[in-house]
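Entry 12.
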Amino acid sequence: MQYKIPLFVLLFWMIALPVLASSLEIEADDALEWDRKNGVFTARGNAVVVYGSTTLKADLLTAHYTEQADGNMTIQKIVATGQPKAIKGDDIITANLMTAYMANSQLDHIKAEGGVKITTPTEQAESKYATYKTATEVATMQGDVSIKRGANILLGDKAEFNLKTDTARLTAAPLKADGTKTRVRGVFYLDSKDNNKSVDSQ
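Predicted 3D structure (tokens):
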């Protein structure tokens, strides 16, 4: 059986406290669990959180919150494990672990760790870690970064990938202790029809 309960309604129903001003909707196939003592709310089984235009999916979603003196609740972060996926429009981010951080009752940024993949209608980007700012739609990627468009590929240690403007800037890793440095690398096929990406590397 699938449960589909807006979080602010659930909290109001369980403890009759003032409703959150911002709507955060959570649904799951298996269970919704609330641990008021530890300030944790858990959704299990194909769990989905919808906040504005951003959707976060995972096998397990754990929301951490604080309760104010007036009874209102402020969500601090939502941890997603088990094939986590963040979706905004046509852009998709996947990783081994994701943590969504809130600020001023808004979804501020998402940290992705391990096997990070960002897919847009025209690019596929991969890295070890990434931080995605929802306001700017910029993903800061780090660790074995690769960005592909068609047959073309860019490789580096760090990248600023703007999903809104479809641009990327790649940089190399800092100097190692032995004085060596890994260079940024790009392979472009000049006859490729897909070679129209705006890229800056150094």
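Annotation: The chain has one domain: 25-187. Residues 10 and 77 are 18 Å apart (CA to CA).
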